[in-house]
Write a structure and sequence with these properties.
single chain; 98 residues; mainly alpha; Helix Hairpins
């Protein structure tokens, strides 16, 4: 049985690869190489969080899904930029289950 959430690991792996092996024209690479660095990544996280909140407020399911996907993507970029693997986030969640 396929773990549908493994796509997050796949996306994170691509982000990590782009960080280590920049490809010209890659959006991920542009975030890592932006002259403002972390500020640009955090700006995108904030922008996508706001857009997600608005979609929820307006009850727009398709937009909620789309904006949440954008938000999760930019959160993964933020984690990668801070050298935080998904496993550490998973461990944090596990610790909170008790």
């Amino acid at each position: 049985m396929e773990n549908k959430l493994s796509v997050l690991e796949d996306v994170y792996a691509v982000i990590e690869d782009r960080k280590a092996n920049p490809i010209e024209g890659s959006y991920v690479c542009s975030l890592f190489q932006h002259r403002k660095g972390m500020d640009k990544i955090l700006e995108k996280v904030g922008e996508e969080a706001f857009e997600t909140v608005l979609a929820v407020k307006n009850g727009e399911k398709d937009r909620i899904i789309s904006e949440t996907s954008d938000l999760l993507f930019h959160l993964l970029v933020m984690l990668s930029a801070n050298d935080i693997p998904l496993e550490e986030i998973a461990e944090e969640f596990k610790g909170r289950r008790h």
